[in-house]
Amino acid sequence: MRTRVGMITPSLNTVVEPITYGMLVNLPEITVHFTRVSVTSVSLDEQSDAQFAEQPMIDAANLLIDAKVDVICWNGTSGGWRGLKEDADLCAAVSDAVNVPVTSASQAIVSAFKQSEVTRYGLVTPYFGDMQNQIISNYSNMGFECVGEAHLNHSDGFSYAGIDEKVWALNIKRVAESKPQAITTMCTNIDCARLAHDLEKETGVLLIDSVSATLWAALKLAGIDPSLVRSWGDIFRLN
Fold first, then answer.
1. Do residues 102 and 72 touch, judged by C-beta distance below 8 A?
2. Which of 10, 32, 152, 213 is the most exposed place for a label (fewest CB within 10 A)?
3. What CA–CA distances, in Å, run from 218 to 47, 193, 213?
4. Residue 132: Cβ within 10 Å count
């Protein structure tokens, strides 16, 4: 029986679809279907914040309902800096509107931390320092301590997708030196998911990538065993 997963993604994102399809290439019984909301900038200002309003998310979710999806995920990490409670409330509002379970990348990371009993983590992002600090503060309020971090100070959200894997690998390994229990590469428009398999072996640290975590959470929400996804990191072994 086919399981259909719906994903809402930022309009500038070019990473989520190909990476997610790649993770599911050997699982034809699970299909993922995408729609978008307009996101053209990423910052802490009001104009950027308005992009993540409730009604556009509900409108996007209703388009996915036409495809009879079983679950929906907001495949964006805006909850990291906007607030995790606000993000959970957004998911709940969308779920109430369309009558299917809804989660998000930010909620998925929290769930992965709890599932793996992580309290000390490392954070790697493309963002500016003010956003990084806001993310660290919001996750701290949830009981998660950031013990090492790296951020690239990139302002153009579209350009995140073009950052070379070697840059991410170098920063992940540097953050691993702070001895976190897990490292999260937070942003769904960065190409880090494919690094998990090798870097976990090299560093001994669980890598929780946003794109991977979102799919992991979606599969769990749909009642699918995440361990069916293989060679994409240990997050898919968390049940």
1. yes
2. 152
3. 29, 16, 8
4. 23
Q: Say whether both 119 and 69 belong to one domain.
A: no
CA distance 119 to 125: 19
Domain of residue 217 covers 3-106+211-237
pLDDT by 10-residue block (mean), the chain, 239 residues: 94 97 97 95 79 92 98 95 94 98 97 97 96 96 97 92 97 98 97 97 98 98 97 95
What DSSP character marks residue 19? Answer: H
Residues 49 and 97 in one domain: yes
φ, ψ for residue 187 (rounded to 5)?
155, 130
Whether residue 29 is found in the same domain as residue 118 = no
Determine contact, residues 60/36, Cβ cutoff 8 Å: yes
Reported as half-sphere exposure (CB side, CA atoms, 13 A), residue 239 has a value of 8
Q: Are residues 55 and 38 in the same domain?
A: yes
**C-alpha span between 54 and 126 (Å, rounded):** 25
- Please say whether the beta carbons of 225 and 239 come within 8 A: yes
Instruction: Give the separation between CA 123 and CA 72, rounded to whole angstroms.
Output: 26
122 and 200 together in one domain? yes
For residue 4, count CB atoms less than 10 angstroms from its CB and return exposed for 0-12, middle for 13-18, buried for 19 or more. Answer: middle
Helix (H, G, I), strand (E, B) or coil at 129: helix
